[in-house]
């Protein structure tokens, strides 16, 4: 199991893949759509939609650059007379398919779909929109911690792509969303973005404020903060939160009374001598040797920190490994990393990060010594810098990293224990948004859309396009999975 798998391309929440095909055709305001079924992956339930391809210039500044076809899906409203302003759902990553993401969390948007179409566009470079994939994504995911090898593989990946990777940045992509709204005949739209999708949603609002009626930002990436340096710090805070929760909960504290020190001792032991663990790969059913060192431990902990249901496993996995049983940790590591690798278009991810984030590290005030003090350390920043030393950078609007200052209604959602976009990020974004409301859910992780009463909160907000219409009192009762005491589950 490689080290780069955990750091080079892991800036987003995990999503799932697959796009289905079409049947009978119909026309929607200049964009031909056909009946189709969209899915979250092989064997998963499908949903009815209307699908088509939006043709867009590869480089909008050069009419001779050629066209690319972007995958579109519209999930019709349940109402026979839907509202004229749909909801556009934008996934994270960077590199996830919005169509695939929507299907995986569709229940979160069913209240909104009662009156509004759900509009989905696989952002250029993702999903079925000319995805920027290297063969099996092996180059960047299997590079290990050898930075020279990472550079070599990144360069080979960029050179192998069918399209110039410079033209897959957020600044270009927001024009695709505006063109889609026009092609479908929607005069105004509502926008939901999650994780990196919040960056897209904010820049869409910046460029087309008259188009956007309301905006929901879930797991907020503020335009003023480049992704990368803060991730290790946020991940450490999330793990500390889990340790504190366990200490407060009687059953967990009694079962794992020395959890923090056990984790520190485990890291020290793996630093001195990594372990090789033979486990069955759940994806292939075949035995597989997995190396568990400090980087692998860090990757597993961070990926499992995204959602309360997997956070619930952390004390038990740490305790088992500390006592010499690494099999459960290795198995969870394989599942989490494979899910992440399957969900991201690595080339698109790199095009965004290497254009919009890494070039701004030099002007960002962050303390590398503070990164050293975290369980992840500075490796992720080092790997991203290595990749971007050879990856072509694309266009970024001059005001891209400026604070967003508009009076459009904006609802911001944060999980208290988010390991990648902490509530502080949403506070930063909201400072210059006079018509914004920031809600924080206790003990929750990355992405709130599907959690508890959040679907009702979002539906009320979109219906009114008014933050005063939001009653958030129900968030006090949002459930966080209790910690597993043993492998049969939490205590009764």
Could you characterize the architecture of this molecule?
By secondary structure, the chain is of the alpha/beta class. It has a single domain, classed as Rossmann fold (3-Layer(aba) Sandwich), CATH 3.40.50. 37% of the residues lie in helices and 17% in strands. The chain is built from 19 helices and twelve strands. The strands form two sheets. Strands 1-2-3-4-6-5-7-8-11-12 form a ten-stranded mixed β-sheet, sandwiched between helices. It has a two-stranded antiparallel ribbon with strand order 9-10. The longest helix is centred in the middle third of the chain and has 18 residues, at 231-248. It is globular and about 60 Å long.
In short:
This protein has 492 residues and is α/β, with parallel strands linked by helices.
- Tally of extended strands? 12
Count, helices: 19
Number of domains: 1
Q: Segments where pLDDT lies below 50 for 5+ residues?
A: 1-29, 136-144
How much strand?
Answer: 15-25%
Tell me, briefly, the overall form.
Answer: globular
And the CATH topology?
Answer: Rossmann fold
First-residue to last-residue Cα separation: 36 Å
Gyration radius, rounded: 22 Å
Fourth-level CATH superfamily: Alpha/Beta hydrolase fold, catalytic domain
The class by helix and strand makeup works out as: alpha/beta
* Percent helix: 25-40%
Strand count, sense and barrel status of the largest sheet are: 10 strands, mixed
The CATH C-level class name: Alpha Beta
CATH architecture label: 3-Layer(aba) Sandwich
- Give the strand line-up of the largest sheet: 1-2-3-4-6-5-7-8-11-12
């Amino acid at each position: 199991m490689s080290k780069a798998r955990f750091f080079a391309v892991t800036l987003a929440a995990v999503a799932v893949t697959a796009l289905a095909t079409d049947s009978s055709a119909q026309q929607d305001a200049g964009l031909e759509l056909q009946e189709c079924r969209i899915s979250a992956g092989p064997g998963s339930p499908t949903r009815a939609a209307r699908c088509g391809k939006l043709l867009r210039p590869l480089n909008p500044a050069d009419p001779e650059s050629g066209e690319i076809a972007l995958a579109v899906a519209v999930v019709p409203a349940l109402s026979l007379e839907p509202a004229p302003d749909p909801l556009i759902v934008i996934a994270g990553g960077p590199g996830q398919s919005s169509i695939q993401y929507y299907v995986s969390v569709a229940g979160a948007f069913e209240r909104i779909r009662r009156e509004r179409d759900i509009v989905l566009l696989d952002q250029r470079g993702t999903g079925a929109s000319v995805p920027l994939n290297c063969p099996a994504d092996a180059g960047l995911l299997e590079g290990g911690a050898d930075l020279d090898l990472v550079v070599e593989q990144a360069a080979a990946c960029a050179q192998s792509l069918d399209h110039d990777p410079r033209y897959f940045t957020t600044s270009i992509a927001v024009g695709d969303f505006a063109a889609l709204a026009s092609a479908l005949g929607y005069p105004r739209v509502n926008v939901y973005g999650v994780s990196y999708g919040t960056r897209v949603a904010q820049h869409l609002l910046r460029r087309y404020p008259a188009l956007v009626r309301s905006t929901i930002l879930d797991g907020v990436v503020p335009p003023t903060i480049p992704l990368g340096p803060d991730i290790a710090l946020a991940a450490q805070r999330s793990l500390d939160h889990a340790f504190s929760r366990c200490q407060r909960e009687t059953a967990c504290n009694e079962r794992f009374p020395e959890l923090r020190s056990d984790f520190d001792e485990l890291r020290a032991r793996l630093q001195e001598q990594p372990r090789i663990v033979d486990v069955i790969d759940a994806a292939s059913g075949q035995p597989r040797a997995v190396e568990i060192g400090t980087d692998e431990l860090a990757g597993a902990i961070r990926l499992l920190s995204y959602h309360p249901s997997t956070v619930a496993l952390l004390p038990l996995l740490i305790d088992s490994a500390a006592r010499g049983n690494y099999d459960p940790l290795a198995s969870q590591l394989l599942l989490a990393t494979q899910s992440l690798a399957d969900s991201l278009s690595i080339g698109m991810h790199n095009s965004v990060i290497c254009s919009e984030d890494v070039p701004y590290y030099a002007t960002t005030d962050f303390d590398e010594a503070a990164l050293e003090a975290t369980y992840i350390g500075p490796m992720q920043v080092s790997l991203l810098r290595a990749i971007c030393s050879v990856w072509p950078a694309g266009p970024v609007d001059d005001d891209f990293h400026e604070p967003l200052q508009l009076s459009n209604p904006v609802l911001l959602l944060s999980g208290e224990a988010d390991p990648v976009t902490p509530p502080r990020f949403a506070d930063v974004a909201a400072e210059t948004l006079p018509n914004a409301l920031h809600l924080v859910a206790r003990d929750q992780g990355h992405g709130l859309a599907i959690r508890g009463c959040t679907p009702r909160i979002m539906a009320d907000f979109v219906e009114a396009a008014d933050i005063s219409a939001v009653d958030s009192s129900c968030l006090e009762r949002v459930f966080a999975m209790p910690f597993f005491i043993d492998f049969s589950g939490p205590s009764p």
